Amino acid sequence: MLKHPKAARSVPQSLSVAPRFGMEGVTIPRHEMPVGEMPPDVAYQIVHDELMLDGNSRLNTATFVTTWMEPQADRLMAECFDKNMIDKDEYPQTAEIESRCVHMLSRLWNAPDPRQATGCSTTGSSEAAMLGGLALKRRWQRKHARGGRPNLVMGINVQVCWEKFANYWDVEMRLVPMDGERFHLNAEEAVKLCDENTIGVVAVLGSTFDGSYEPVAEICAALDEFQARTGIDVPVHVDGASGAFVAPFVDPDLVWDFQLPRVASINTSGHKYGLVYPGVGWIIWRDAQALPEDLIFWVNYLGDDMPTFALNFSRPGAQVVAQYYNLLRLGFDGYARVHGYAREVATRLSGLIADLGPFELITRGDELPVFAVKLRDGVTNYTVFDISRALRERGWQVPAYTFPKNREDVAALRVVVRRGFTHDLADMLVEDLKRHLQHLDKQSGPVHDAANSSSFHH
């Protein structure tokens, strides 16, 4: 991990090699290259043993990222590790597979003319979101040649990639704070912050704080009224990092996508509920007019003239191939089954935790299969941070965190249910939680809080 110098901590400068490797008494440096070579089995075992300290990813309820794929997908990815996605002339079939995925997603999200699908793969939804934001800014600049500082309206619950976008590309973030029991953006508050310099409104389909959907259709309707009143046309970008791969399959009646004319672009994470291992996202525009041509670069590379509009250039083709495998393997019904089961597990698990007594549900997992809980007001001798620490003793990673501005008083635990998290695992989590609550009830006061807990940073 890249560390800032201010975050440096003292660690041993060398690593002792275990005698069973046949290298008794040997040490290797931790922070510089060894002088000589070592046998491949030795190098493998050293790295393998260190990685055991990472814990079991299947027990990580903090991450939205896929932690299990079918062995056939594993094999396909291994066959594609050496393929550079950007070398479309050398790997034309990988490029064709990317194009097929873009067309499938365009149809899934009801693009007006999916035959003219406009989009691409990215390294994740953060890059995809930035591309969507760049297109919004460039379209605004074309209409506002006289200048002014552009702004982007969103809820304070957005993922940090939007803060990066605003910082990197000099866009003012206009954040709607949480208020009372409203933990995300709504239509009324979004419109209040819009003006002639607003490049767009970001609506999140699946907040990472609690798994809830923001009301995309209501936001679009309010912006329609705003345009009728002021003449200002504000497009919407849907950050569907998680929800864009959930809602189409389990919420078919929810209108949130390109069926709404004001929705200009949608991003998603293939490696979240797209069910692919880390390393792939997608950005889709409603049509070619929504993607300014001056953001597309035509590159003469290895003898072929090709378009590119991703931020990254060289990147692996394996995750794109794995995405296509999932779309082909599962189809619409398969995704509906997988995510329907996840929601079933999430809603049942949230109910079991609520029944334990000390907890109050913030959400119950009936939108994203994700829910958040807090302790009831009468519980004062332990915190959600104590619970999170205790659960780590059995390998569970259940994040504890505080909500942002205006609701910093809310401290929550969050559980993300994804493929591979079964009813059986849910039952084991509840039993471990019961066990730890018996001990925590005997505490005289809290031990961990937001200031001294390092288990999770939202």
From TrEMBL:
Its EC number is 4.1.1.15. The keyword Zinc does not apply. InterPro entries: Glutamate_decarboxylase (IPR010107), PyrdxlP-dep_de-COase (IPR002129), PyrdxlP-dep_Trfase (IPR015424), PyrdxlP-dep_Trfase_major (IPR015421). Its cofactor is pyridoxal 5'-phosphate. It comes from the Bacteria. Pfam families: Pyridoxal_deC (PF00282). The modification N6-(pyridoxal phosphate)lysine is found at residue 272. GO terms for biological process: L-glutamate catabolic process. Keywords: Decarboxylase, Lyase, Pyridoxal phosphate. The keyword Lyase applies. One of its GO terms (molecular function) is aromatic-L-amino-acid decarboxylase activity. GO terms for cellular component: cytosol. It catalyses: L-glutamate + H(+) = 4-aminobutanoate + CO2. PANTHER family: GLUTAMATE DECARBOXYLASE. Belongs to the group II decarboxylase family. This is Glutamate decarboxylase. It comes from Actinoplanes aureus. The lineage of its organism: Bacteria, Bacillati, Actinomycetota, Actinomycetes, Micromonosporales.
